[in-house]
Amino acid sequence: MNSNVRPDSMQRITTKELADAFISEQVALIRKQVGDGKVLLALSGGVDSSVVAALLIKAIGKQLVCVHVNHGLMRKGESEQVIEVFGKELDANLIYVDATDRFLNLLDGVCEPEKKRKIIGGEFIKVFDEEASKLSGIGYLAQGTIYPDILESDGVKAHHNVGGLPEEMQFELVEPVKLLYKDEVRVVGEALGLPHAMVYRQPFPGPGLGVRCLGAITRDRLAALREADAILREEFDNANLAGKVWQYFIAVPDFKSVGVKDGKRYEGWPAIIRAVNTTDAMSATIEEIPYAVLHKITDRITAEVDGINRVLYDLTPKPIGTIEWE
Ligand code: XMP
Asked: What average pLDDT does range 32-44 have in this prediction?
């Protein structure tokens, strides 16, 4: 039987009991596969890699080495949460690499979206490889491949790209959630005790805020984007919209307009709110956000975020607009 095909008899994991049974089964399988070997994992902090990390920590503890590369394009608090949850609470063997300067220096002056993506993806693999090369005795590479990845592509996530590792490193793959759908991965993550916010995290592009800081990324505009995005998320939480809207974020374009603040001319960037509902991200509709919430977000962003002087709400469905702005 092809181990990449989900058997028809496999029950959909919808409850804590079913998740616990899956976890016990996988813990045994991982121990059997790995023995006393060492496993490497690129831990982005996304749902899939986080659940794989938690499963492996349960199965083999410190035999798992997690590498978290902070490319400087994470949302506010995300790398900190990885360190808190995996480094402290789960006491994982975690290597944290702050590569912000490397990424931002390479991206300096680069406007073209595809070029930005290539630089971020390429540098990510380079940093990960460098860390992997410093380790000895690694025999396995864990990946957060899930079933839709297998159905939709060749089953290898770009960010965890085995092809990007140095040739002398021959790793056997450990992919404990490869037959699960996203909703099942989340149920398993909660059963493993991961924070709700981590398990129910919105989709976030691999190149992170790099695709939402439009044009050539600058440190000041990136910082403004990160703060504005954090305010948006906080206010959506406060208004109970977080579970109701599929994806919401801020994009900041690379132009300024004139405004007035404290009686003086104040040039700033606009912050664009995107809040969409979808089932498969192929098409998307616009959620009707109450005006009171929009006003509150506008007031907070313009008052609290340096460099932003307008807040806009994107009403464009997909198609014709894509979900991301880039
Ligand atoms: P678009 O902008 O094409 O986005 O309408 C559709 C969905 O894909 C997400 N997205 C990504 N997800 N890596 C990902 O894992 C990426 O590089 C990437 N780029 C876009 C986007 O956030 C939306 O949910």
From this structure: 97
